[in-house]
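Dear Dr. K.,

Following up on our conversation at the group meeting, I've run the structure prediction for Biopolymer transport protein ExbB from Nitrosomonas communis. I'm pasting the input sequence below exactly as I used it, so you can double-check it against your construct before we proceed with anything downstream. Let me know if the numbering doesn't match what you have in your notebook.
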Amino acid sequence: MKKILFLLLLLIVQGSSVCAAEDKNTTTSQTIIVSEPAVKQDSPSDPGKQQKKSVAKQEIINLETAYKREYAFLEAQKRELTERLKNYQANAAREEKSLSNKISALERSSVERSTKIDQLNAQLSEAERKEAAVTERSDTLEITYAQAEATLKNHGIEVPSSIKDTQDNDPAKVNYLFTQALSLIQGLSAIQTKTGSFFLENGKQAQGTLIQLGNIAAYGTSEQGNGSLVPAGGGDFKVWKGSGAESAVALSKNQQPDLLQLFLFESRTNAIEVSTEKSVASIIDSGGPIGWVIVALGAIAGFLILIRAYLLQSNSANTQKLSDQIIHQLDEGDLEVARKSCEDNSSAISRVLSYTLHHLKDDRDHMESIVYEAILQESGPLDRFGSAILVIASVAPLLGLLGTVTGMIETFDMITEFGTGDPKLLSEGIAIALVTTELGLIVAIPALLLGSVLSAWARNIKRDMEHSALRITNIFLGRSNSIEVSDARTQHISNDPLVLNN
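The predicted structure tokens came back this morning:
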């Protein structure tokens, strides 16, 4: 801003100098113009005019002096402003250089501080990582101490409070724990025999001898029974399914058994549960009410399939053989014998052919109507229970899906109420979800396959009935037409005298 003000002052000074020069030239020209008439008018001798002339000259001289003074003043101001402008520019350059140096110094300082901050952050991250590692090692060590103390406590060994409660005394604590563990392992590695009680298979408690193979297996001998022992909870033992009796007796007599039968367990505190073998009823029962509904539908579908198969078997026959037999009898003119053959057969095809034979002497349209009526009458038993079987095959997987949704809802209710800590609480809902789906597919797949096969069997029987009836009708009508033509030719010959004469 100061630079702009100095430039404006400089322009004003230069403009004033130019204006002064122009005014000087104008005054000089006016003096010359005015002096010429004066010279021309000097000829008369007039004192008044002479005085006016001298006054005018004096005024011209004063004006020129004033302009010169003003010009000199402006020149002085110009020189002063120019000097001040040069001083200002020099000061501005020095200040700019100083500011540039300061900015560079600040930039270098900022870079150095950024580098230092990065170094400090790296050191902080490394310190945090080391602290996390130390905390993790400390937690692992505390867990190891707790497990070791619990294990020793299970075997009747208590850690002294002087070692247990002392802080920053890890070497002494580790040394004590390892010493006690080694002595315990040495003691447990040998066969230990002591008197005690255990439970028999029938649930009765027996007093006898306990033979422990370390902390992973045990045997029990008593007058009531012997065998391999498993944890029953609370530090007690029970006989496991009558196994290991011979090994227990041999070990009690300090003898080496030929075959060592034993049950290995992890801990004496956790009871070993006897796993029962699952039966079909228990599997279905795990699916809940929907599982039993699906099984009931499957039983109904199986019963209907058997009934329909029996109906189709009873209404089917060797169609080709029966048709050929009836056609042969018709060719021989034994219509009554053919009817008797149809009546003796109990199949649907024989009944349709019987209807056909009883109306052979009718016209063709009426005969075909009778055939179709008989086929429709026999279609009822053939199609019986077919739709019901297919409906059950369609409903069974939908019931399985319903059971799946019900089981999942029950599972989520258990999770909401008790959490996910105990998987046994969730097993019931999951069993309903899976077992119902399995039962639905087990019922639906065979029902759908057998229902489709039986429907195809029924369609084949109806097709064979229609084909056999139409075949016999066409053969009989063709034979009747040929007989009528032959009779007509015979009558024509007998009535023609020319033919008779020949």
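Two things stood out to me. The radius of gyration is 65 Å. Residues 47-154 form the longest helix (108 residues).

Best regards,
J.T.
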